[in-house]
Input
Amino acid sequence: CEHCGRETTKLHYCKSCGLAEKDQCSHGDAFPYRKKEIDIREIFSAALKTLNMRNYPDLIKGVRGTSNKDHTPENLAKGILRAKHDIFVNKDGTTRYDVTEMPLTHFRPNEIGTSVEKLRELGYDHDIYGKELESEDQLLEILPQDVVIPACKESPDEGADEIFFRVANYVDDLLQNLYKLHPIYNLKSKKDLVGQLIVGLAPHTSAGIIGRIIGFSRTQGCFSNPVWHAEQRRDCEGDETCIILLADLFLNFSRRYLPAHRGSTQDAPLVLTTELIPSEADDMIFDMDTVWKYPLEFYEAACSHTQPWDYKMEVLNDRLGKAEQYEGIGFTHDTSNINSGIRCSAYKTLPTMEEKLKGQMRIAEKIRAVDTGDVARLVIEKHFLKDTKGNLRKFSMQEFRCVKCNDKFRRPPLVGKCTNCGGKIIFTIAEGSVIKYLEPSISLAEKYQVPEYLRQSLDLLQRRVEGVFGKEKERQEGLGKWFG
Ligand SMILES: [Zn+2]
Ligand SMILES: [Zn+2]
Ligand SMILES: [Zn+2]
Output
């Protein structure tokens, strides 16, 4: 209760007699929500009072409406504190950081920016040769659920260290001022994130796994044991996942915020795995080899086109259920530093789709092992064709809008203007969104050898688009070809 702080009971609303104790009334269903005007100023100042805040941020973002079944809103105080700590929120109440999954079996302290003392505290007391950990260049085997989070300075995006530092401060602020409890993080610097727990959750799944931060890489990858990645999803290198600070998840996630439509539980951390058990991970990882060296026979077998299953090499599957499933895993080629190389992909720094695609095709042309026609085909099929077809469909099913009063129309009124205020009626889907990738697809298909079937699909699509928008010479020339 905002007034006395005591626990409240949920009331329901009956359309005939008003407030009801239960979700059923003699008149039928009583709803957990109703439409009514609220005095936001009063609610806002009450929230500030709860938080003991006098000043508040200039911009506090909210959502236009609630899409969950009961229309349960989040406590406004949380939104105010998020704005204060400059963090974004996901639809389920958590703050997520998107990362690229990178497998890591071994590391040196100087690669992850964590001191020897701190690593010893975390359980890394010996290197892989059994020598006591004393110096920053000793090689260590990563513990199964330990994670090196990204802190890349070259990227236009903020590092996970920056974001999680602010999230931890937000959680502490929340605990102290909204829940009136003790703070749990008490971080003085970003380095203090080392040792804290996170949750990894891959897109389109709803089972997360707990990990522990042990340091920071200067890349944009989230480095962890390959099995930790496999526990989240099928393929573990180069795929995308997101990480969430554990206390943020416990404190702020609620199933009640999730939209009522089907599929909303995807991407929501409904189940949490606390202990990594390799036999429960996806079986694709079982074929990962765990040896220190590939023998000459292996290369000879490869030369004579032996099938992989006909050549025996130790793989993770051979270690399942034994202590060796967690430790003593080998690698064949050492690197001087996991942070060497390109740290920020040109895909992120190139501003337009045209430049990104031209760059991709330039590389494809340079690499002999790459079939340029196939790259062009994939780009057209997987991205452009889907995008154009989808937007063409949306265009024909769109709503119309009045420029003056913003009234929406399923079909444009016959009088040709807004029946509400007489304003001009316009499209809600732009023609540009439909045709933007059509010309690029056609010029890409012309320049590179793409299959005849695809060429004809594009031709048909072009005719359909022209059937909707007409065939104007100026427009086609105005668009310009990306490839030619
Ligand atoms: Zn009260
Ligand atoms: Zn009633
Ligand atoms: Zn109008």
Residues 12-75 form one domain.
